[in-house]
Amino acid sequence: GKIELPPLQQPPDVLHELLTSNTPTSKKFRSHIRQYNAAFAFTSLGVSLDESLFQGTGAYAFRIHGQLAHRTGSLLPAAGQPIRYAQIYIIDSSEERVEARRQGNLNAQRGRRPANANDFVDADVWRELETMIEENHRFFGVYKQAYQIMREKPVEEQRDLQVHLRFKKHTDRRRYNLPNVAEGEIAAIIPGPGNIAHDSRDIVLRLNDGPLSRISDRHPAYHPLHYVLLFPYGEMGWHEEIPLAGENEAGRYKKVTRLMFMQHRLHTRFDQPASIFYACKLFHQYIVDGWACIEQSDLMFLRTHQNQLRRESYRGLADALNANDERDTADIGQPIILPSSFINSPCCMMQLFQDAMSICRYYLHPDLFITMTLLKKLDLLIVLLSTF
After folding, report:
1. pLDDT band (50, 70, 90) for residue 26
2. Which of 166, 190, 224, 351 could form a disulfide with 340 if both were Cys (CB 3.0 to 4.6 A apart)?
3. Can you give the residue range of the structural domain that contains 358?
Protein backbone atom coordinates (compact mmCIF):
# COMPACT_ATOMS: atom_id res chain seq x y z
CA GLY A 1 0.00 0.00 0.00
CA LYS A 2 0.90 3.67 0.04
CA ILE A 3 1.41 3.72 3.80
CA GLU A 4 4.58 2.10 5.07
CA LEU A 5 5.19 2.39 8.80
CA PRO A 6 7.73 0.42 10.80
CA PRO A 7 5.89 -2.47 12.48
CA LEU A 8 5.51 -2.44 16.22
CA GLN A 9 7.96 -4.76 17.90
CA GLN A 10 6.97 -7.81 19.89
CA PRO A 11 6.65 -6.57 23.50
CA PRO A 12 9.13 -7.82 26.11
CA ASP A 13 8.32 -11.23 27.57
CA VAL A 14 7.01 -9.89 30.86
CA LEU A 15 4.50 -7.58 29.17
CA HIS A 16 3.53 -10.15 26.54
CA GLU A 17 2.75 -12.64 29.30
CA LEU A 18 0.59 -10.13 31.17
CA LEU A 19 -1.34 -9.20 28.01
CA THR A 20 -2.02 -12.70 26.70
CA SER A 21 -1.90 -15.16 29.61
CA ASN A 22 -4.97 -16.39 31.51
CA THR A 23 -3.30 -16.55 34.91
CA PRO A 24 -5.00 -14.69 37.80
CA THR A 25 -2.17 -12.15 37.88
CA SER A 26 -2.50 -11.42 34.15
CA LYS A 27 -6.28 -11.10 34.33
CA LYS A 28 -6.02 -8.67 37.23
CA PHE A 29 -3.38 -6.69 35.33
CA ARG A 30 -5.60 -6.35 32.27
CA SER A 31 -8.56 -5.33 34.43
CA HIS A 32 -6.54 -2.42 35.85
CA ILE A 33 -4.26 -1.74 32.90
CA ARG A 34 -5.25 1.95 32.72
CA GLN A 35 -4.11 2.49 36.31
CA TYR A 36 -0.86 0.64 35.67
CA ASN A 37 -0.20 2.72 32.56
CA ALA A 38 -0.95 5.99 34.37
CA ALA A 39 1.52 4.99 37.07
CA PHE A 40 4.34 4.49 34.55
CA ALA A 41 3.45 7.28 32.09
CA PHE A 42 5.87 10.17 31.54
CA THR A 43 2.99 12.58 30.92
CA SER A 44 -0.47 13.16 32.35
CA LEU A 45 -3.77 12.94 30.50
CA GLY A 46 -5.83 16.11 30.73
CA VAL A 47 -9.46 15.35 29.89
CA SER A 48 -12.92 15.36 31.43
CA LEU A 49 -14.27 11.81 31.64
CA ASP A 50 -17.93 10.83 31.58
CA GLU A 51 -18.04 8.88 34.86
CA SER A 52 -21.69 7.86 34.38
CA LEU A 53 -20.71 5.21 31.86
CA PHE A 54 -18.35 3.53 34.33
CA GLN A 55 -21.22 2.55 36.63
CA GLY A 56 -22.98 0.20 34.23
CA THR A 57 -22.65 -3.56 33.92
CA GLY A 58 -22.28 -3.67 30.15
CA ALA A 59 -19.23 -3.39 27.94
CA TYR A 60 -16.59 -0.86 28.98
CA ALA A 61 -16.79 2.52 27.25
CA PHE A 62 -14.22 5.32 27.49
CA ARG A 63 -16.08 8.57 26.90
CA ILE A 64 -14.72 12.10 27.16
CA HIS A 65 -16.09 15.63 27.23
CA GLY A 66 -14.37 18.63 25.69
CA GLN A 67 -10.74 18.86 24.70
CA LEU A 68 -8.09 16.24 25.35
CA ALA A 69 -4.43 17.05 26.03
CA HIS A 70 -1.22 15.46 27.30
CA ARG A 71 0.72 17.56 29.81
CA THR A 72 4.18 17.48 31.32
CA GLY A 73 5.56 19.25 34.36
CA SER A 74 8.91 19.88 36.02
CA LEU A 75 11.33 17.02 36.65
CA LEU A 76 11.39 17.79 40.38
CA PRO A 77 8.17 18.21 42.39
CA ALA A 78 7.29 21.45 44.12
CA ALA A 79 7.61 21.59 47.90
CA GLY A 80 4.91 19.55 49.58
CA GLN A 81 3.66 18.03 46.34
CA PRO A 82 3.69 14.28 45.56
CA ILE A 83 6.11 12.82 43.03
CA ARG A 84 4.31 11.88 39.84
CA TYR A 85 4.83 10.82 36.23
CA ALA A 86 8.30 11.56 34.80
CA GLN A 87 9.52 12.79 38.21
CA ILE A 88 9.47 9.18 39.44
CA TYR A 89 12.04 8.09 36.86
CA ILE A 90 14.56 10.53 38.34
CA ILE A 91 14.55 8.73 41.72
CA ASP A 92 17.58 6.47 42.19
CA SER A 93 16.08 3.93 44.60
CA SER A 94 13.87 1.24 43.09
CA GLU A 95 11.87 0.83 46.30
CA GLU A 96 11.23 4.57 46.47
CA ARG A 97 10.01 4.53 42.88
CA VAL A 98 7.56 1.71 43.62
CA GLU A 99 6.24 3.55 46.69
CA ALA A 100 5.90 6.81 44.72
CA ARG A 101 3.85 5.04 42.05
CA ARG A 102 1.66 3.41 44.71
CA GLN A 103 1.00 6.73 46.43
CA GLY A 104 0.39 8.44 43.10
CA ASN A 105 -2.23 5.86 42.21
CA LEU A 106 -3.94 6.24 45.59
CA ASN A 107 -4.11 10.02 45.16
CA ALA A 108 -5.52 9.66 41.65
CA GLN A 109 -8.22 7.22 42.73
CA ARG A 110 -9.17 8.96 45.98
CA GLY A 111 -12.77 10.12 45.85
CA ARG A 112 -13.61 7.99 42.83
CA ARG A 113 -13.36 4.51 44.29
CA PRO A 114 -13.46 2.82 47.71
CA ALA A 115 -10.52 2.80 50.11
CA ASN A 116 -9.30 -0.50 48.67
CA ALA A 117 -8.73 1.08 45.25
CA ASN A 118 -5.09 0.06 45.42
CA ASP A 119 -5.77 -3.63 46.05
CA PHE A 120 -4.93 -4.47 42.43
CA VAL A 121 -1.30 -3.47 42.93
CA ASP A 122 1.10 -6.39 42.68
CA ALA A 123 4.54 -5.28 43.87
CA ASP A 124 6.31 -7.96 41.81
CA VAL A 125 4.48 -6.90 38.64
CA TRP A 126 5.36 -3.27 39.28
CA ARG A 127 9.04 -4.07 39.69
CA GLU A 128 9.07 -6.18 36.54
CA LEU A 129 7.35 -3.46 34.52
CA GLU A 130 9.68 -0.80 35.88
CA THR A 131 12.74 -2.84 34.92
CA MET A 132 11.24 -3.47 31.49
CA ILE A 133 10.66 0.24 30.83
CA GLU A 134 14.11 1.26 32.06
CA GLU A 135 15.76 -1.34 29.83
CA ASN A 136 13.68 -0.79 26.69
CA HIS A 137 11.84 2.55 26.56
CA ARG A 138 13.94 5.06 24.61
CA PHE A 139 12.64 8.08 26.51
CA PHE A 140 13.79 6.81 29.89
CA GLY A 141 17.37 7.65 28.88
CA VAL A 142 16.28 10.93 27.31
CA TYR A 143 14.66 12.17 30.53
CA LYS A 144 17.62 11.06 32.63
CA GLN A 145 19.92 12.90 30.24
CA ALA A 146 17.79 16.05 30.43
CA TYR A 147 17.84 15.89 34.23
CA GLN A 148 21.63 15.53 34.33
CA ILE A 149 22.10 18.46 31.96
CA MET A 150 20.07 20.78 34.16
CA ARG A 151 21.58 19.55 37.44
CA GLU A 152 25.08 20.28 36.18
CA LYS A 153 24.24 23.96 35.68
CA PRO A 154 24.85 26.51 38.46
CA VAL A 155 22.04 26.74 41.00
CA GLU A 156 21.19 30.31 40.03
CA GLU A 157 20.58 29.19 36.42
CA GLN A 158 18.51 26.10 37.19
CA ARG A 159 15.26 27.92 37.95
CA ASP A 160 14.81 29.35 34.45
CA LEU A 161 16.59 26.59 32.55
CA GLN A 162 14.72 24.59 29.93
CA VAL A 163 15.55 21.51 27.91
CA HIS A 164 13.74 20.94 24.64
CA LEU A 165 12.95 17.54 23.16
CA ARG A 166 12.98 18.36 19.48
CA PHE A 167 12.22 16.02 16.62
CA LYS A 168 14.49 16.30 13.60
CA LYS A 169 13.21 15.66 10.10
CA HIS A 170 14.49 12.59 8.30
CA THR A 171 16.88 12.77 5.42
CA ASP A 172 15.30 9.79 3.68
CA ARG A 173 12.13 11.22 2.14
CA ARG A 174 11.01 7.94 0.61
CA ARG A 175 10.37 6.08 3.82
CA TYR A 176 9.29 6.70 7.40
CA ASN A 177 12.32 5.61 9.40
CA LEU A 178 12.14 5.20 13.14
CA PRO A 179 13.90 8.12 14.91
CA ASN A 180 16.96 7.11 16.87
CA VAL A 181 17.85 8.74 20.19
CA ALA A 182 21.51 7.80 19.89
CA GLU A 183 21.76 9.54 16.52
CA GLY A 184 20.22 12.74 17.83
CA GLU A 185 16.91 12.53 15.97
CA ILE A 186 15.17 13.00 19.30
CA ALA A 187 17.37 15.62 20.93
CA ALA A 188 17.44 16.36 24.65
CA ILE A 189 20.51 18.54 24.40
CA ILE A 190 19.02 21.95 23.66
CA PRO A 191 19.34 23.72 27.03
CA GLY A 192 18.68 27.42 27.39
CA PRO A 193 16.96 30.12 29.47
CA GLY A 194 13.21 30.25 29.73
CA ASN A 195 12.87 33.22 27.40
CA ILE A 196 14.43 31.61 24.32
CA ALA A 197 12.29 31.05 21.25
CA HIS A 198 11.32 27.47 20.55
CA ASP A 199 9.30 25.45 18.09
CA SER A 200 5.68 25.08 19.21
CA ARG A 201 6.08 21.33 18.71
CA ASP A 202 8.95 21.04 21.19
CA ILE A 203 8.45 19.19 24.46
CA VAL A 204 9.81 21.64 27.04
CA LEU A 205 11.19 20.29 30.33
CA ARG A 206 12.05 22.30 33.44
CA LEU A 207 13.95 21.20 36.51
CA ASN A 208 11.57 22.66 39.09
CA ASP A 209 8.85 25.26 39.68
CA GLY A 210 7.65 24.81 36.14
CA PRO A 211 3.93 24.96 35.33
CA LEU A 212 2.22 22.13 33.50
CA SER A 213 2.78 22.57 29.79
CA ARG A 214 0.75 21.04 27.02
CA ILE A 215 2.53 18.68 24.63
CA SER A 216 1.85 19.31 20.96
CA ASP A 217 0.03 16.41 19.35
CA ARG A 218 2.25 17.02 16.31
CA HIS A 219 5.26 15.70 18.20
CA PRO A 220 5.99 12.01 17.44
CA ALA A 221 6.52 11.35 21.16
CA TYR A 222 2.98 12.48 22.00
CA HIS A 223 1.61 8.94 22.34
CA PRO A 224 4.66 6.88 23.42
CA LEU A 225 5.30 9.18 26.40
CA HIS A 226 1.87 8.40 27.83
CA TYR A 227 1.03 4.92 26.54
CA VAL A 228 4.16 3.21 27.81
CA LEU A 229 2.42 -0.18 28.05
CA LEU A 230 1.26 0.01 24.43
CA PHE A 231 4.64 1.16 23.16
CA PRO A 232 7.19 -0.29 25.61
CA TYR A 233 10.08 0.57 23.29
CA GLY A 234 8.92 4.16 22.80
CA GLU A 235 7.97 3.68 19.15
CA MET A 236 7.26 7.00 17.51
CA GLY A 237 3.75 8.17 16.69
CA TRP A 238 2.46 10.35 13.89
CA HIS A 239 4.24 13.49 12.71
CA GLU A 240 3.94 15.79 9.72
CA GLU A 241 6.93 14.46 7.79
CA ILE A 242 5.85 10.85 7.12
CA PRO A 243 5.83 10.49 3.31
CA LEU A 244 3.54 8.21 1.37
CA ALA A 245 5.33 5.26 -0.19
CA GLY A 246 6.26 5.41 -3.86
CA GLU A 247 5.89 8.27 -6.28
CA ASN A 248 2.75 10.28 -5.60
CA GLU A 249 3.34 13.59 -7.33
CA ALA A 250 -0.14 13.75 -8.87
CA GLY A 251 -2.05 12.59 -5.81
CA ARG A 252 -4.01 14.73 -3.39
CA TYR A 253 -1.87 13.72 -0.42
CA LYS A 254 1.90 13.47 -0.36
CA LYS A 255 2.21 12.87 3.38
CA VAL A 256 0.57 10.40 5.73
CA THR A 257 -2.29 12.13 7.56
CA ARG A 258 -3.30 11.48 11.16
CA LEU A 259 -6.29 9.50 10.00
CA MET A 260 -4.16 7.34 7.69
CA PHE A 261 -1.72 6.70 10.52
CA MET A 262 -4.42 5.59 12.97
CA GLN A 263 -6.10 3.44 10.33
CA HIS A 264 -2.80 1.68 9.71
CA ARG A 265 -2.11 1.16 13.43
CA LEU A 266 -5.61 -0.18 14.11
CA HIS A 267 -5.46 -2.82 11.39
CA THR A 268 -4.26 -6.29 12.36
CA ARG A 269 -1.65 -8.03 10.21
CA PHE A 270 -0.60 -11.66 10.20
CA ASP A 271 3.12 -10.86 10.06
CA GLN A 272 3.12 -8.24 12.84
CA PRO A 273 2.51 -8.40 16.61
CA ALA A 274 -0.99 -7.47 17.74
CA SER A 275 -0.09 -6.66 21.33
CA ILE A 276 -1.94 -3.33 21.47
CA PHE A 277 -5.22 -5.11 20.69
CA TYR A 278 -4.90 -7.10 23.94
CA ALA A 279 -4.66 -3.97 26.09
CA CYS A 280 -8.41 -3.91 26.83
CA LYS A 281 -9.43 -0.60 28.44
CA LEU A 282 -6.12 1.06 27.61
CA PHE A 283 -6.63 0.20 23.95
CA HIS A 284 -10.06 1.86 24.10
CA GLN A 285 -8.47 4.96 25.59
CA TYR A 286 -5.82 5.02 22.87
CA ILE A 287 -8.48 4.90 20.14
CA VAL A 288 -10.43 7.77 21.72
CA ASP A 289 -7.20 9.72 22.16
CA GLY A 290 -6.34 9.24 18.48
CA TRP A 291 -9.84 10.25 17.41
CA ALA A 292 -9.67 13.37 19.60
CA CYS A 293 -6.36 14.39 17.99
CA ILE A 294 -7.87 14.02 14.51
CA GLU A 295 -11.03 15.91 15.47
CA GLN A 296 -9.14 18.75 17.18
CA SER A 297 -6.77 19.02 14.22
CA ASP A 298 -9.67 19.25 11.76
CA LEU A 299 -11.37 21.92 13.85
CA MET A 300 -8.17 23.95 14.07
CA PHE A 301 -7.72 23.73 10.30
CA LEU A 302 -11.26 24.97 9.72
CA ARG A 303 -10.75 27.79 12.19
CA THR A 304 -7.58 29.01 10.47
CA HIS A 305 -8.89 28.57 6.91
CA GLN A 306 -12.21 30.37 7.13
CA ASN A 307 -11.38 32.55 4.14
CA GLN A 308 -11.13 29.48 1.94
CA LEU A 309 -14.65 28.53 3.04
CA ARG A 310 -15.92 31.85 1.63
CA ARG A 311 -16.97 33.07 5.05
CA GLU A 312 -18.13 36.36 3.59
CA SER A 313 -20.87 34.54 1.71
CA TYR A 314 -22.51 33.57 5.02
CA ARG A 315 -24.79 36.35 6.13
CA GLY A 316 -23.61 37.44 9.57
CA LEU A 317 -21.97 40.68 10.55
CA ALA A 318 -22.75 42.41 7.24
CA ASP A 319 -26.47 41.67 7.63
CA ALA A 320 -26.47 43.01 11.17
CA LEU A 321 -24.78 46.25 10.12
CA ASN A 322 -27.01 46.76 7.08
CA ALA A 323 -30.08 46.30 9.25
CA ASN A 324 -29.11 49.39 11.25
CA ASP A 325 -30.24 47.73 14.48
CA GLU A 326 -28.99 48.95 17.84
CA ARG A 327 -27.05 45.86 18.84
CA ASP A 328 -23.49 46.30 20.00
CA THR A 329 -21.20 45.02 17.24
CA ALA A 330 -18.93 43.53 19.92
CA ASP A 331 -21.78 41.17 20.85
CA ILE A 332 -22.13 39.88 17.31
CA GLY A 333 -18.75 38.16 17.37
CA GLN A 334 -17.02 36.25 14.63
CA PRO A 335 -18.66 32.88 13.95
CA ILE A 336 -16.65 29.87 12.88
CA ILE A 337 -18.32 28.16 9.94
CA LEU A 338 -18.19 24.37 9.88
CA PRO A 339 -18.68 23.06 6.32
CA SER A 340 -20.80 20.08 5.38
CA SER A 341 -17.66 17.94 5.13
CA PHE A 342 -17.35 18.10 8.94
CA ILE A 343 -19.50 15.28 10.29
CA ASN A 344 -22.41 16.32 12.57
CA SER A 345 -22.00 20.03 11.81
CA PRO A 346 -25.23 21.97 11.10
CA CYS A 347 -24.31 22.18 7.41
CA CYS A 348 -23.68 18.43 7.32
CA MET A 349 -27.01 17.59 8.96
CA MET A 350 -28.87 19.98 6.67
CA GLN A 351 -27.20 18.43 3.63
CA LEU A 352 -28.18 14.93 4.77
CA PHE A 353 -31.75 16.12 5.33
CA GLN A 354 -31.92 17.69 1.88
CA ASP A 355 -30.55 14.49 0.33
CA ALA A 356 -33.22 12.47 2.12
CA MET A 357 -35.94 14.84 0.91
CA SER A 358 -34.59 14.55 -2.63
CA ILE A 359 -35.09 10.79 -2.47
CA CYS A 360 -38.67 11.34 -1.33
CA ARG A 361 -39.24 13.84 -4.12
CA TYR A 362 -38.03 11.34 -6.72
CA TYR A 363 -39.56 8.14 -5.33
CA LEU A 364 -42.47 9.83 -3.48
CA HIS A 365 -43.08 9.49 0.23
CA PRO A 366 -42.68 6.08 1.89
CA ASP A 367 -45.89 4.16 2.56
CA LEU A 368 -44.69 1.70 5.21
CA PHE A 369 -42.39 1.90 8.20
CA ILE A 370 -41.37 -1.67 9.05
CA THR A 371 -39.54 -2.64 12.25
CA MET A 372 -37.85 -6.04 12.35
CA THR A 373 -37.43 -7.90 15.63
CA LEU A 374 -35.59 -11.12 16.33
CA LEU A 375 -35.73 -13.63 19.16
CA LYS A 376 -32.20 -14.77 19.92
CA LYS A 377 -33.46 -18.11 21.27
CA LEU A 378 -35.56 -18.91 18.22
CA ASP A 379 -35.21 -22.62 17.39
CA LEU A 380 -34.63 -22.02 13.69
CA LEU A 381 -31.95 -19.42 14.40
CA ILE A 382 -30.14 -21.77 16.80
CA VAL A 383 -30.11 -24.52 14.17
CA LEU A 384 -28.77 -22.20 11.47
CA LEU A 385 -26.04 -20.73 13.67
CA SER A 386 -24.91 -24.14 14.86
CA THR A 387 -23.62 -24.88 11.36
CA PHE A 388 -20.97 -22.15 11.64
Report:
1. very high
2. 351
3. 338-388
